[in-house]
Specification:
Chain A: It holds the Pfam family UQ_con. The structure holds 2 protein chains of 2 kinds. Chain A is an alpha+beta fold. Chain A contains 4 helices and 4 strands; from the N terminus they run αββββααα. In chain B, strand 5 and strand 6 form a beta hairpin. Classes of the chains: A alpha+beta, B alpha+beta.
Chain lengths: ~170, ~240
């Protein structure tokens, strides 16, 4: 287990301090109970003019020991119904995939993938933009993807339920 | 890709080994059908030492930075050291003006400035110390190596007239090339990115191409110009450092 020394931890500390000093409008960040700089907790506001509007979705960012060489993993801990989020909560998005590792996803171009100079804010903003604009070519939750494509009304109803649930949890 | 694979885990940069003996011992050149041994023997007229570099996709940048920092420690290169330090200090403004996030870039830049500040006044007495700083896995050298990538992108973006004609043949835009071919840490350099990084730093790099094609000659590609010259060996897919007799 890392002691949080070294350049990856330093880069994360720098970003955490900056995000707390200049909090973005659409999400907030902090460390988990163990105060480990490699484990972040997030609260994401559902983007306006989407079925997710009004939701307060909790998520986790888990950074690897060799960050920023490799990207973090992001998972929603609140219930989430979305074509690009696995039922486990894990987010499937190009920016969190290292280049050249995802053969399942030929549509993904290398320029959308992970680079060490990508900041945490950019990651979260990409995920928020994914909420507004699902990518049905690489579904992580097949049922949600099919429903999003064929039964938009039912999809919205299901998302609204998760929004209400997230509001009750806060 | 080469059949002679570099070590992907090993120290960032190895100790100085004798050339070409070390490469002949550590790689199967002798049993290969290519003209590798003849080419290595030709090169041995000029070079007597080599340092092998970790093969994780950043070997060019790592060789470049190691070769550069070591030479900046040479007495007589004080002016170059000041010039490079000024360039790195000014690089943040250029990157920010091109849309790179200042707070993130600063995290990388500070590591490279830290590395430059650890260059001893005289190489002769402190070479081993400097080597150990440069190969320390948790030291400033890893972030400094990665910082070379946005510096490289930034040079290309600042000189579109030079790079556009070549890049737009294979890539939709300069930005797309930089994001997919330069900025990911696992993507190896090729001629365009080498040209950009040596020009950005004002340093000359000579690359000897060990391709095994012709036992009578070795192609040498010269990139950039400058008082500091770094010699490298390219065995397709990988760069190592060379040292002259």
């Amino acid at each position: 287990m890392s002691t949080g020394a070294g350049y990856g931890a330093e880069l994360l500390r720098r970003q955490l301090a900056d995000l707390n000093r200049n909090p973005p409008d659409t999400f907030s960040v902090g460390l988990g109970d163990d105060e480990n700089i490699y484990n972040w907790e997030l609260m994401i506001m559902g983007p306006e003019s989407t079925p997710y509007e009004g939701g307060f979705f909790k998520a986790k960012l888990k950074f690897p020991e060799n960050f920023p060489n490799m990207p973090p993993e992001m998972s929603f801990t609140s219930e989430m119904w979305h074509p690009n989020v696995y039922e486990s909560g894990k987010v499937c998005i190009s920016i969190l995939h290292p280049p050249g590792t995802d053969e399942h996803n030929p549509q993904e171009t290398a320029e959308e993938r992970w680079r060490p100079i990508i900041g945490v804010e950019q990651i979260v903003l990409s995920v928020i933009s994914m909420l507004s604009d699902p990518n049905d070519e690489s579904a992580a939750n097949l049922d949600a993807a099919v429903q999003w494509r064929d039964d938009r009304k039912g999809y919205k109803r299901k998302v609204r339920q998760t929004v209400e649930k997230s509001q009750n949890d806060v | 890709m080469s059949e002679f694979l570099p070590d992907p885990t090993g120290p960032f940069v190895s100790d100085l080994f004798s050339f070409p003996a070390h490469l002949l011992e550590s790689q199967n050149y002798a049993t290969s059908s290519g003209h590798y041994v003849a080419q290595l023997n030709l090169l041995s007229q000029t070079y007597s030492g080599t340092r092998t570099v970790m093969g994780d996709g950043s070997c060019f940048y790592r060789s470049f930075l190691y070769g550069l920092i070591m030479q900046l420690a040479d007495e007589g290169n004080e002016d170059e050291r000041v010039r490079i330090e000024e360039y790195i200090k000014g690089s943040l403004a250029t990157l920010t003006s091109q849309g790179y996030e200042e707070m993130i870039m600063e995290g990388f830049q500070e590591e490279l400035l830290d590395l430059l500040s650890q260059i001893p006044p005289s190489r002769t007495s402190d070479e081993i110390n400097l080597h150990n700083i440069l190969i320390h896995p948790n030291g400033p050298s890893q972030m400094s190596t990665w910082y070379c990538r946005p510096l490289c992108s930034s040079y290309i973006k600042s000189n579109p007239e030079t790079f556009k004609p070549v890049l737009l043949i294979d890539y939709p835009s300069i930005d797309s090339y930089c994001k997919s071919q330069i900025e990911p840490s696992s993507v190896e350099s090729e001629e365009i990115s080498i040209q950009a990084i040596v020009s950005a730093f004002g340093v000359k790099v000579n690359v000897e191409y060990l391709d095994g094609h012709d036992g009578e000659k070795v192609m040498r590609h010269v990139f950039g110009e400058g008082r500091i010259e770094i010699d490298m060996l390219y065995r397709p897919g990988h760069y190592d450092l060379l040292y002259r007799k």
